[in-house]
Amino acid sequence: MASLKRAPAVAAALALLLAGLAPGLELISRPPEPAYVAAPAAVPADTVAGWVVDANDWLDRGLLGVRHRGSAVTSADLGEPLVILTDNGSIVYPVSMRSPSGPMMDNIRLMPFAEQRVVVTGRFVARDRERGIVVDRIAGAAGAVQTGAFPVRETPDSKLIGRVTALSCWLGRTDTGLAHARCARDHADAGEPLIIVSDSVYMYYPVVRDTMTDPPDFTKLFRYIEQKVVVTGTVINRGRARGIAIKSVAEFTPDRSSETIRPGDQR
Fold first, then answer.
1. Alpha-carbon distance 165 to 198, whole Å?
2. What is the CATH number of domain 152-258?
3. Residues 237-261: what's their mean pLDDT?
4. Residues 225, 184 contacting (CB under 8 angstroms)
5. Topology alike, domains 46-140 and 152-258
6. For the chain, which residues make up each domain, given as ranges?
7. What is the 3-state secondary structure (H, E, C) of 134-154?
8. Which of 105, 131, 140, 185 is 20 to 30 A from 122, alpha carbon to alpha carbon?
9. Distance from C-alpha of 106 to C-alpha of 102, rounded to nearest angstrom
């Protein structure tokens, strides 16, 4: 009798056991779950510390420090890009790897820090001796101006042979031919700086001697995008950066004399 009384309980326990096993039996018939693959470790961001300066004001007159903030902001409003002057006297140019947007996008982000020391985080792009950075974050930093720390040399009546191109396209892209020419023209149309890359692969920034009245000197170079040219003017070496105050630009032809900038001027 006792065993008969326990029968319903045993049956109920057996039913629960079978119900618990059912999901497990069903899983066996499914394809195995894919193994979990950990996400790749994040690539450490590149960081550069330095001063936010107007490229033209720095190369032309060596303006650096908060008392020159007004001049830097005025020049930036005219389209001159703000750049990062490092402690060793080189310039890191903020560049855009997206569709052309012109220098004003980064200028707007950098303008609150004009003539101040900052730490910029992003991704470096480089071509030979020059560096740019695709900006991610900007933060203020402490530091004093190193007065007189950067040597300067000007070489008037220089003749420079090189190719005209857009800054971001030259620093950040490896394509050539029509694709590169299209990139340069699109970025130039958006207002991005044009530069001259010499045959010895030095980059020269076009300097305007009076930015209070003149627009950036990219206008003199626009018709020569992705062409080889002969540029005459005053070459400026300030710190480790180079510029040229342009007097004239002409298309290069083989009968023109070779580059006359002395190697010692290309520090």
1. 11
2. 2.40.50
3. 82
4. yes
5. yes
6. 46-140, 152-258
7. EEEEEEECCCCCCCCCCCEEE
8. 185
9. 8
Residue 219 has pLDDT above 70, yes or no: yes
Residues across the chain: 267
Query: Which amino acid belongs to residue 238?
Result: R
pLDDT number for residue 256: 55
pTM for this predicted structure: 0.74
Residue 19's pLDDT band, with cuts at 50, 70 and 90, is: very low
CATH architecture under which domain 46-140 falls: Beta Barrel (2.40)
Amino acid occupying residue 178? L
Write the pLDDT tens digit of every residue in 88-123: 899 999 887 666 655 566 788 899 999 999 999 999
pLDDT of 148: 61
